[in-house]
Amino acid sequence: MHAPPAGSPDSSRPSPACPSLLVAVIAGWSLLGCGRGEPASFPTAAELSDERRRPDGVALDPASTPPPPTNQADVEDSVVTLRTPLGIGAALDVVDEFFRRVVAEDSEALSELLTRDALAIHTGSGGSGQPPSAGLWWEQRFRRLEYGKLAGEPVYRESELQIFRAEDVLATPQHPAIQPETLDDQDVVIRVPIATARVAADRLLGDEIVVWLRRDGPRFRIYRLLEDFQLQ
After folding, report:
1. For labeling, which of 20, 43, 75, 173 is most exposed (least CB within 10 Å)?
2. What is the spatial distance between Cα 230 and Cα 102, in angstroms, rounded to a whole number?
3. Region annotation Disordered: residue ranges (predicted)?
């Protein structure tokens, strides 16, 4: 190939950029700069208000008071609070503590195991007559007899106890004094055969004592004591 003559343009080399294109680019940049406006500004800490900001209010439903606890409920009841049933062990503990306080002749401590309306019912009377208050009845017995003589003696044997729930008592009534309409659904009735009713010539207890227990909050208390025993 021959080199082009000097002074003749070389067609293989790119031509310089068109001046009109450069003008258009510069104009576009200018338009973009004008469209951005003023820069965003934020208040400084010194410019913020000293008033404490309160959170937005939230609507709350007023708390409803739960219904009082009960031992049982019907399916028609919408909202109920049921008590947890007490175990038989709690009833047996009361029976054991009752005889301990009898042997100690501690009438004040014994009264703590009784309900306010506890009665001592003489089963030999067939349920007739007005039974005395259980607390006063045992105070009389402590004044007349020496229950300390039972210390060290087996008053009863736990293996011989007969335990009845309310539904069991209804099926096999223990005594006319135990009426179905007076039973609560969590009552417990314990028949206690007495192993040591006498010490020497002194008769201190009946041959058996039926202990009727009623729930009082988180514990059982003695509601009725049924025994064939009379002071001589």
Report:
1. 75
2. 16
3. 45-76
Which tokens sit at 4? 């082009």
Task: Determine contact, residues 73/82, Cβ cutoff 8 Å.
Answer: yes
CA dist 73 and 84 (Å) reads 13
Give the 3-state secondary structure of 94-107: HHHHHHHHHHCCCH
pLDDT tens-digit readout, 163-213: 998 877 766 665 666 777 788 889 999 999 999 999 999 999 999 999 999
- Going across the sheet that includes 114-122, the strands are 114-122, 219-227, 208-216, 188-193, 162-165
Q: SS in 3 state form for the chain? A: CCCCCCCCCCCCCCCCCCHHHHHHHHHHHHHHHHHCCCCCCCCCHHHCCCCCCCCCCCCCCCCCCCCCEECCCCCCCCCCEECCCCCHHHHHHHHHHHHHHHHCCCHHHHHCCEEEEEEEEEHHHCCCCCCCEHHHHHHHHHHHCCHHHHCCCCCECHHHCEEEEHHHHHHCCCCCCCCHHHCCCCCEEEEEEECCCEECCEECCCCEEEEEEEEECCEEEEEEEEECCCCC
